[in-house]
Amino acid sequence: MEKRFVDKVAIITGAAKGMGKQTAEDMAAEGAVVVIADVSRKEMEETVRRIQKASGRAKGVFCDVADRAQVDQLILGTKAEFGRVDILINNAGILIPGSIEETSDEIIDKTINVNVKGVLYAIRTVAPIMKAQKYGRIVNVASITGKNGDNTTVFAYGASKGAVISLTRSVARQLGPHGVTCNAIAPHAVMTDLMHYWDQAKKDDIASRIPVRRLGTEADMAHLMCFLASDQAGYINGETVNINGGYYMD
Q1: Is the pLDDT of residue 199 over 80?
Q2: Least trusted range by pLDDT, from 39-48, 63-72, 77-86, 197-206
Q3: How far apart are CA 9 and CA 125, in angstroms?
Q4: The pLDDT of residue 195
Q5: Whether domain 9-186+218-241 has CATH 2.30.40.10
Q6: DSSP code, position 219
Q7: What is the tens place of the pLDDT at every residue in 118-129?
Q8: Fewest CB within a 10 Å sphere: which of 36, 90, 117, 122?
Q9: Of 157, 197, 235, 247, which residue is the catalytic one?
Q10: Cα separation, 68 vs 45, whole angstroms
């Protein structure tokens, strides 16, 4: 198989576990230098070891994406060490189940700070680097809730993912002329740690209502993110791609 990411430098936030981890491993296997950013040091270091054991190149960087200074250091430090930043995947995010009444000020602030501001900070810092290179791939992780709303998570979550969809389009318009594309994915029913609050009965019920009759996997998400980050997707820009087995179509 052709390796799509030889000599490419990729930053993936929230990559210590879940679909970010799977994407990091897949990109490294295809030749990328992968910078894994996360707040979970132990899991981040384990992911780096897994990639290196498989003869891939990876580095872990502790980064809370809600902290602008840490995001700047992540991206500028990567540029200083490796000379470029080709791919940015904004995967870090939080999801808190709850009703409108249970959505405290603290939950609102935390959700917006991580899910929206973290993406804005990263793109703002990487934009001049990618523009100077005349090349870049940005992939954001949105959600079905950003398009269709949700009734199980706090309502700030869907709002944050709707913002990601909108900013994806804005970035695509502004950076497209400079050889930089920006796209997003909108998953649903992917069995990561964020979905711990779904019991087996709910999982079975949701799967029965998805046309392909199964829940999503981390590998499903990684395949799409790798494609959007590759040169194969060079004419796709500003899109938020549904990946939910046909549960929601638009």
Answers
A1: no
A2: 197-206
A3: 15
A4: 61
A5: no
A6: H
A7: 999 999 999 999
A8: 117
A9: 157
A10: 23
What are 210's two structure tokens? 């998805």
* Residue written as token pair 């959600």: 143
List 89's β-bridge partners, or say none. Answer: 12, 139
Q: Which residues pair with 13 in a beta bridge?
A: 37
From CA 127, how far away is CA 125, in angstroms rounded? 6
Residue 162: band (very low, low, confident or very high) from pLDDT cuts 50, 70, 90: very high
Whole-number Cα distances in Å, 54 to 77, 90, 92, 110, 155: 25, 24, 24, 36, 41
Q: In this prediction, what percent of the chain has a pLDDT beyond 70?
A: 98
Question: Which residues are CB-neighbours of 19 under 8 A, at least 6 positions away?
Answer: 91, 141, 187, 190, 192, 218, 221, 222, 225
Q: Note the pLDDT of residue 222.
A: 97
* φ, ψ dihedrals at 155, nearest 5°: -70, -15
Residue type, 31: G
DSSP codes, 106-166:
HHHHHHHIIIIIHHHHHHHHHHHHHHHHT-EEEEEE--THHHH--SSB-HHHHHHHHHHHH
Question: Which phi-psi region, left, alpha or beta, contains residue 179 (left: φ > 0; alpha: ψ -120 to 50)?
Answer: left
Query: Cβ distance 54 to 106 under 8 Å?
Result: no
Span 91-111, average pLDDT: 95
Query: What is this structure's pTM?
Result: 0.95
- The token pair that represents 193 in the structure block: 């740690």
Mean of the per-residue pLDDT values of the chain: 95
